[in-house]
Amino acid sequence: EVPLVESGGGSVQAGGSLRLSCTTSGSGLGDSDMAWYRQVPGSECVLVSSISSGGVATYYDYSVKGRFTISRDNAKNAAYLQMNSLTPEDTAVYYCAAGVKDYPSLFRILLECPGSAGYWGMGTQVTVSS
After folding, report:
1. What is the SS3 assignment for 40?
2. Are the C-beta atoms of 26 and 5 separated by less than 8 Å?
3. Quick check: 107 and 114 in contact, CB under 8 A?
4. Which residue of 14, 57, 107, 111 has the fewest CB atoms within a 10 Å radius of its CB?
5. CA-based diameter of the chain, in Å?
6. What is the block-wise mean pLDDT of the chain (130 residues), using blocks of 10 residues?
7. Phi-psi category of 10—alpha, beta or left, where left has phi over 0 and alpha has psi -120 to 50?
C-alpha cells in the first residue's frame, strides 16, 4: 500500500490561488501516473488533471484548463496542482491518486472518491468564496 497525503487546501477568495501537494511515505511513485480528482457532496468525483510517470503527458478537465497546472517531482515522491484564478465552482474536496495507467481513458468520472483502483489520499478541502 502506498499511502498518499494531500496538503495545501484551504479557503481563498475568488481570483486567488492555492497549491496542492501530494506526497507519500511509502515506496516511490516514479513509475506511476498520478492524478487529481475533486468531488462536491452529492455529485460525481471528477478527474481534474493527471500526469504521466515521466511528466510529459498531462490531462486537464475543460473546466480547469488554462488555470490549473499539474507537476511532479519524482525525486521527492510528490505531485502538485497549482490552482490559479479560482472560482466558487472550484470548491470541492480534492483527492490525489496514483497507480493507474492512463487515468483520462479509464477513470475520468467516478461515483465516489477515494476510488477503488490504485492508491488514494483522504482528500483536502478547497473552498473558494465569492
Report:
1. coil
2. no
3. no
4. 111
5. 40
6. 88 98 81 94 97 94 98 92 98 96 92 93 97
7. left
